[in-house]
Give the backbone structure.
Amino acid sequence: MKTISRTKIVDVLKSDAFGTTVNVKGWVRTRRGSKQVNFIALNDGSTINNVQIVVDVEKLGEENLKPITTGACISVNGTLVESQGKGQNAEIQALEIEIYGTADPETYPLQKKGHSLEFLREIAHLRPRTNTFGAVFRIRHNMAFAIHKFFHDRGFYYFHTPIITASDCEGAGQMFQVTTLNMYDLPKDENGAISYETDFFGKEASLTVSGQLEGELAAMALGAIYTFGPTFRAENSNTPRHLAEFWMIEPEVAFNEIKENMDLAEEFIKYCVQWALDNCTEDIRFLNDMFDKELISRLESVLKEDFVRLSYTEGVKILEEAVLKGHSFEFPVFWGADLASEHERYLVEVHFKRPVILTDYPKEIKAFYMKQNDDDKTVRAMDVLFPKIGEIIGGSQREEDFDKLKKRAEEMGLPEKDIWWYLDTRRFGTAPHAGFGLGFERLLLFVTGMANIRDVIPFPRTPKNADF
Ligand code: 4AD
Ligand code: MG
């Protein structure tokens, strides 16, 4: 076959260089047609749209075309012609076809359109070849890029925090242990407890649940930083919003207080949503039409309105009133309760009909590092609550007072010997500061309209599932 440098299908479809010879390579979505003429829909991942390859069966030989079935990979040299069909600019009249790889129709699992998302999860290694997952993963890339751009343009530094750590930032005890000890022959001390002295790090170590503590160290030097990395939580919640391995973005800013923290969070999410609408238009339109007819209008409505800002105490009052008026929740709601997703969504979807930032939560249900309010009962926390999702961001102003922080850490089972380095930021040149964490996959749930978090990360890690 003649060597012609490859053009991506996204560019072919935009081109009007009719009459020129081009080369495209990709995977066959369908081949249909008559004895005389065949139409191959070819996709190379550069766009959701397929290019149509028109094949003169006699010219290329019926036998040669036989292996070109759904899933096969081919390289096509052909003449770019103006498309006769509606919707598309250009198509290709095939001159030569080389088959890179066949896909036996008896065994290739992606034969038909309309496989269920559950089924596609079982073939996560092939699902990127579907329209849906192509769209989702292109959007995922675009969101990651938008996040870096947002922070870079505002003078934030991307700071890399460790993945292996000895500290439980959130204090929830949901860490995955990292060890090289022999599980079949664990060294014990005289009390029968496992002795970590001979373990790789000489002490108990785990995968991080958050980069925040190290992020704070950096903010107290570089001013404004963000982290963007994998995060691990061994919480046994099999919900459509929880993963055991997810990605979190954590900005941390010196001299910001809770108000600036809320402003940053709101500006940040709106920027990401706007970016998606501007740069992932076709993929979002596809998902809108396919799964969720309100997706685009929901994205646009979030951009238009200011987020509601409300204290936890006021939020709980609204929920209690709803119960009195006859609304029933699965979980009880009272001052001091950790809000469940159904409560968060009630505030957002039913009561206010727009995103809500709840602040000043009871200290008992929040982490040790949050700034304590003068009432001695609440901390300067903020959770951003979103339609369809519930909590999308969790953050706070940080406790900058050394004594208060040390005392609260001890009360919550974090002795100074473990976090002396964190406490040092308050010992030396402490300053007010604030930050938050955005769950990347929760943002993607919102932007793609997908209903299950397993469908916005390529290879989900959830309880009893670590395949692929
Ligand atoms: O509210 P979280 O636990 O806050 C923190 O980890 C803080 N250290 C962040 C900070 O202030 N720098 O988690 C932050 C966000 C949540 O709002 C949620 O979007 C996401 O991370 N998240 C999860 N996403 C998927 N699966 C899970 N298991 C998640 N746990 C939290
Ligand atoms: Mg939280």
